[in-house]
Write a structure and sequence with these properties.
mainly alpha, 5 helices, about 0% strand
Length: about 150
């Protein structure tokens, strides 16, 4: 159970922390230092390196979550905060899948075609969705850590 908990927490730290860093630290620095064509290329490389880690996180977190619930007898016996955490986490996965298969694919396509305005539009979609996932991730962490004290 200890290994499952450690892997569960590490996968969430990697995903939410990575999004927070990219959105709150890297993005403003890139905006202030790079022209749009270079900035778009930077983001393509960043996503190409970050998204495989997110794929690991979206596999590891649910699997370890299920393992952590086994001693309780599964979801049917899980407290409310676990159901909330699972629901929000599932929504985050759906948002990531959309980002990966729609705007990120579009970003790569438009960059290959040298269509900078269209690529920028795709990056703006990614930015907004990542911002949403950061907020959902923070809420999930709060629910996971203090939910058992305040939620039934």
């Amino acid at each position: 159970m200890g290994i499952s908990l450690a892997l569960h927490i590490l996968s969430i730290i990697l995903w939410v922390g990575g999004m927070f860093f990219a959105h709150m630290i890297l993005r403003p620095a890139a905006v202030s230092e790079l022209e749009p064509p270079l900035r778009l290329k930077l983001w393509r490389h960043v996503f190409n390196r970050f998204f495989p880690w997110v794929w690991v996180a979206i596999v590891v977190a649910p699997l370890t979550g299920i393992l952590l619930l086994a001693p309780l007898g599964g979801f049917s016996n899980a407290p409310l905060y676990v159901h909330i955490m699972t629901t929000i986490g599932s929504l985050m996965v759906v948002i990531f899948l959309y980002v990966y298969f729609a705007p990120f694919s579009g970003l790569k396509k438009y960059l290959d075609e040298q269509d900078i305005p269209a690529a920028a539009g795709q990056l703006n979609k990614i930015r907004a969705l990542v911002g949403t996932n950061i907020l959902l991730g923070i809420i999930t962490v709060l629910v996971a850590t203090v939910g058992k004290y305040y939620l039934i």
